Amino acid sequence: MSLYEVTMDSLTVGNESVSAAKTVIIDTGSSYIYIPEEDALNIYSYLPSPKTSAQGYLLPCNPANPPSLTFTFGGMAFDLEYKYLIGADVGSQDGYCWAKIGSLKGMDTWVIGDAFLHTVYTSFDVGSKEVTLYKLLK
């Protein structure tokens, strides 16, 4: 099993609170972060110069002073630096990269995948169905 439900206390972009507490799915089999379209539009409104395409969202590859996203779980804040929000260069959109936050119409669940999970230590207790997140040592 690679899916676990946990409570996310909040999400902020820079200093702006963009999401209150909600249940999210921690999915080690997903590469990106997938969220409802309304939530995605809200988050992207706080990120520098986002664009959309038929395939997904685009963000500048190298913006000046980009904000971090801060996910809070169990009262502990985990910063996701901007560089982890972007993927490969789009190529046809000069200076833009694919964003690692996606949405699907009609989706009502948040799925937190490797775009976030590779920045934390994660412990899965299968017996008690608990997930514990730890900050990486720098």
Automatic annotation (TrEMBL):
Keywords: Aspartyl protease, Hydrolase, Protease
BP GO annotations: proteolysis
InterPro entries noted in UniProt: Aspartic_peptidase_A1, Aspartic_peptidase_AS, PEPTIDASE_A1, Peptidase_aspartic_dom_sf
MF terms (GO), sorted A to Z: aspartic-type endopeptidase activity
Keyword Hydrolase annotated: yes
Peptidase A1 domain span: 1-134
Keyword Membrane recorded: no
SUPFAM superfamilies noted in UniProt: Acid proteases (SSF50630)
Assigned protein family: Belongs to the peptidase A1 family.
Name the UniProt record assigns to this protein: Peptidase A1 domain-containing protein
